[in-house]
């Protein structure tokens, strides 16, 4: 977890933001459909990176006693990278399920996609907030606390 992770969280949050504008401006849906494949692949990579970060966080559990704020920042950042990545990459899974499954699975997949789009806005705000905290921690607090 470092500056790059904070920047990644802010970028992922920014990628989730269009769902907020699509509710208010339906004419933007056409442009959102154009970037959806790129968004999905980027989200898939972020989800994998988030899993890797979560595993690394658990391997460094002994740091909780020494640097608890650093460990919690790292763990929360990795959790948000994973969650935001899964939400962004679900469109790929939905497309795959729509082409190779039964009608019931397609309907269920569409329902899940609809629910994920609904929570994308709050995920974006949370991701950007944690990304800003990670950047603040790495730039300011890391040097002050000399961790």
Give structural notes:
By secondary structure, this protein is an all-alpha fold. It has one domain (3-145). It has five helices and no strands. The chain has helices at 3-16, 18-24, 29-59, 68-100, 103-145. Helix 1 crosses helix 4, helix 3 packs across helix 4 (68-100) and helix 4 (68-100) runs antiparallel to helix 5 (103-145). It is elongated and about 55 Å long. The two termini are 13 Å apart. The model has no long low-confidence stretch (mean pLDDT 81).
Task: Give short descriptive properties of this protein.
147 residues; mainly alpha
Arithmetic mean of pLDDT: 81
Order of helices and strands: HHHHH
The helix fraction, in percent, is over 70%
Radius of gyration over alpha carbons? 17 Å
Count of domains: 1
Secondary-structure-derived class: mainly alpha
Distance between the termini: 13 Å
Low-confidence stretches: none
- 3D shape: elongated
Let me know the number of strands. 0
- Binned strand content: under 5%
Question: Could you describe the largest sheet, including whether it forms a barrel?
Answer: none
Number of separate helices:
5
Q: Can you give me a brief rundown of this structure?
A:
The chain has 5 helices and no strands. With 147 residues, the protein is an all-alpha fold. The protein has one domain.
Topology diagram in text:
Elements: H1 3-16, H2 18-24, H3 29-59, H4 68-100, H5 103-145
Helix pairs in contact: 1-4, 1-5, 3-4, 4-5
